[in-house]
From TrEMBL:
SUPFAM superfamilies: NAD(P)-linked oxidoreductase. Signal peptide: none annotated. CDD domains: AKR_AKR7A1-5. Gene3D superfamilies: NADP-dependent oxidoreductase domain. The keyword Oxidoreductase applies. Residues 12-342 form the NADP-dependent oxidoreductase domain. Keywords: Oxidoreductase. One of its GO terms (molecular function) is oxidoreductase activity. This is NADP-dependent oxidoreductase domain-containing protein. It comes from Podospora didyma. Pfam families: Aldo_ket_red (PF00248).
Length: 373
């Protein structure tokens, strides 16, 4: 197993959220042969890093990746502690239990990157947001009720046991990033060195505070949704145009969540601005979105170690996406149109931490001791 990625031209990570055997829990690539062909192409192009999680495809994704012989392939792999979809999910013992189960499912004694995921909220009635990854629950209480120190001490214990190399965090606010980093520093615990978050040309809310925080505290930034969940395909033109299939459809576990995230009138007005400039320049919407992230965003993809997670449902999509990522900067007029589009979508754009920040414990006492005010 390589301990952290090799060095391709750009850090491109294959997201495995929809790779598994069970379509009813969100899988779109269900055949092991197809999975192996996708990995073959990915590695033949010089890329080596994959991203999974304990809960993807109803908890079955990691085993599917084990069956693809990820270790023998020499892949660098990141997984995530089970999503904190209930109160107490991030307590010490459950964190350890989650990674131990992941290691068993993956058939390994260690992974390259271990992510801790922030709490997320239900975005539609009666069903938890986590339905899109195969977890069904009602009236879920999200776990921002566990003090960071309890969770982070477990992470450090796992690190000292040699069960992962790098510690990552995902979907936390900028001020939580600071608290996590400093809590680790003052306790001599392993600190996070990579942040995973949502980012694309029409969803740039990480730029004002989160990106500077990551730079200050030494975290690489890895982003998901670079093409806005596929919205940059241009197939969907308005909020009332719900597709029959795909990520935004009612048939998909992710459908309602993704529509809640992106279906705003301002989003589609922004896409119209981009589409006009793209057509004039003879480009495609998807290549424009990907090239923007690589060459024009706040990330350091070309001259740093920031990365892009791409999700695909077939090998042709992967081939096209990699080809687009490997292209150079966009024409100046297209970049200008993308900036104009962001000015339109910005006011209604969803925040990057996905939920109201409410804690189920006395944060001052947790930080400063009993009776602190």
């Amino acid at each position: 197993m390589p301990l952290i990625a090799t060095a391709p031209a750009h850090r491109v990570i294959l997201g495995l959220m929809t790779f598994g055997t069970d379509e009813s829990t969100g899988a779109r690539v269900t055949d092991a042969g197809d999975f192996n062909k996708i990995l073959d192409l990915f590695q033949s192009r010089g890329y080596n890093e994959v991203d999974t999680a304990r809960v993807y495809v109803g908890g079955q994704q990691e085993a599917f990746t084990r069956e693809a012989n990820w270790k023998d392939r020499g892949l660098t792999l990141a997984t995530k502690i089970k999503y904190p979809s209930e109160h107490g999910a991030n307590v010490h013992d459950k964190v350890i239990e989650s990674l131990d189960l992941s290691l068993k499912e993956l058939g390994t004694d260690a992974v390259d990157i271990l992510y801790l995921h922030a709490a997320v909220r239900p975005l539609f009635p009666h069903l938890c947001l986590l339905n899109y990854i195969g977890v069904v629950a009602e009236d879920v209480t999200q776990d921002r009720g566990t003090p960071f120190a309890d969770t982070l001490s477990a992470i450090d214990k796992l690190h000292k046991a040699g069960k992962f190399v790098r510690f990552g965090i995902s979907n936390f606010t900028a001020f939580e990033v600071a608290e996590i980093v400093l809590t680790c520093k003052y306790n001599n615990w392993v600190r996070p060195t990579v942040y995973q978050g949502m980012y694309n040309a029409i969803t740039r809310n990480i730029e004002p505070e989160l990106v500077p925080a990551c730079r200050r505290y030494g975290l690489d930034i890895v982003v998901y949704n670079p093409i806005a969940g596929g919205l940059f395909s241009g197939k969907i033109k308005s909020t009332d145009m719900v597709p029959a299939e795909g990520r935004f459809s009612d048939a998909a576990h992710s459908g309602k969540m993704y529509r809640n995230r992106y279906f705003r009138d301002s989003t589609f007005r922004a896409l119209q601005i981009i589409e006009a400039a793209v057509e004039k320049s003879g480009l495609t919407m998807i290549e424009t979105a990907l090239r923007w992230v690589v060459h024009h965003s706040a990330l350091k993809v070309v001259d740093g170690n920031d990365g892009i997670i791409i999700g695909v449902s077939n090998i042709n999509q992967l081939d096209d996406n990699l080809t687009n990522i490997e292209k150079g900067p966009l024409p100046e007029e297209v970049v200008k149109a993308l900036d104009e589009a962001w000015a339109v979508s910005k006011a209604d754009s969803v925040n990057y931490w996905h939920m109201d920040v409410k804690y189920g414990y006395d944060t001052r006492e947790a930080l400063f001791g009993p009776g602190a005010r």
